[in-house]
Amino acid sequence: MTRKTNLSLRAQGNLSGENVMLEGVIRVNANKFDEAANPDGIINLGVAENQLMKAELRKIMGKVDHVDPKLFGYGESPAGSKQLRRYFADNIFNRYFKPQEPVRVEDIVLSAGCSSTVDNFTFCVCDEGEGILITTPFYGGFNTDIAAKSKAKVVIADLGDISPFDPAHLELLQHAVDKSTEQGIPVKAMVLSNPHNPLGRNYPLEILLEYLRFASRNRIHILFDEIYALSVFDHALTGVAKSEQPAENPFISVLSIPHLEQHCEKDLIHVAYGMSKDFCLNGFRCGALVSPWNKDMIDAMHSIAVFSWMSSTTEAMLTRLLADGKTVDEFTSTNQKRLAASYTFAVDTLRKHQIPYLPAQGGHFLWMDLRQYIPPAFKAAAAQGDRNQEYLLWRAMLNEGVYVNLGAAFSERKVGFFRLSFSVPIPMLELGLKRMLRALQLTYDPLRVSTASTTATTTTTPAVVAGNGTTLKK
Ligand SMILES: Cc1ncc(COP(=O)(O)O)c(C=O)c1O
């Protein structure tokens, strides 16, 4: 690479990468749906943004004097004021994560968003060119968090047909690490999101324990991104949406696992969190690293915290929101009920149209299989990994006025999977789904085609297996 542009090689390395997620977001933001002002605008069912709690947030935040002159100066600490970190500890982590040892103020470093937290974490554990292991499919933002500034490498363990919730995938982890080491990229950490983004499910305990043992065996750090911990809604489901949930599978924070030291050296274990998801505050930019057993990590995070210092106004607003445990409880339980209602509406619609999906338990999204809308002439190529048809479906939906996120953005190898964010008010969701179905049927309508044929039936279709190896519901 030359220095033609007069930028650093580091920065130049960021110029060429294509970012599918970004392309969609740019199109949506240029033409945002608004029921009154822009009803033909694009409905955003692609970004994990929860729009269900706006009225409550307005009410709580409205009480903060955001032009209080005290907020014009620097805050108390780039890592967040003691008071705010105290509220994070008491009213989020110790209240909801069931930690074996109470989380303390000094275990937490705040930053301007969970993306910053993962970026700073990467900076602290990886030198340039070292790797962080992730299994597929995964939240695409990790690519940027890990590579853009720290210049670490994402080391992908491609699970192919195996689900990340199936212990069968575990042997692929060691294989990925060994191969990466052979290629000169030593792996320094593993990152995973629990609840899983994009699959919307919790990791079972046995997998969490295996991950811990794996980290210990390889002496690598392991970061549990638990940013959707309070968005688990399956307990609030009823009817069919409830009945299709697999066996009891609660969210388990790594902090709550007893005798962690029997599975992994505790200094390797860290948790990332943030206010974007469970508190519907993507725009506020606040993330947290919790590292109760590694003082060096905490000190290293403090040493770079100044670059991702959240604003004093944000800090004041969050301090207000989190000050009272009862407010957090009410907010959380209302949010979970609304997530369950929007989820139910989404899956009822998908079921009606025989679109397979993976039942979700938490998060703002669900994973659906749209392969049936790939026209027959292109199915073989798509099955071989040709992504063209996935892009075409995605653009067809955008052209009809709805944005959903495509499997490529999550490094899903199989072509034709999409992530649908349902965390919007039901009327908007209904319209978005209508647009999505119209776009799909215009591209290729398997029901119409098979109804016309003499042999195929269209009323009952068997469950199919998703790209992640988990049986999807029809
Ligand atoms: C698993 C996960 N981690 C981190 C983030 C980024 O969060 P933030 O908005 O706090 O940067 C997201 C956002 O989608 C996410 O899904």
TrEMBL record:
The keyword Calcium does not apply. GO terms for molecular function: pyridoxal phosphate binding; transaminase activity. One of its GO terms (biological process) is amino acid metabolic process. Residues 42-430 form the Aminotransferase class I/classII large domain. Keywords: Pyridoxal phosphate. It comes from the Eukaryota. The keyword Repeat does not apply. Gene3D superfamilies: Aspartate Aminotransferase, domain 1, Type I PLP-dependent aspartate aminotransferase-like (Major domain). This is Aminotransferase class I/classII large domain-containing protein.
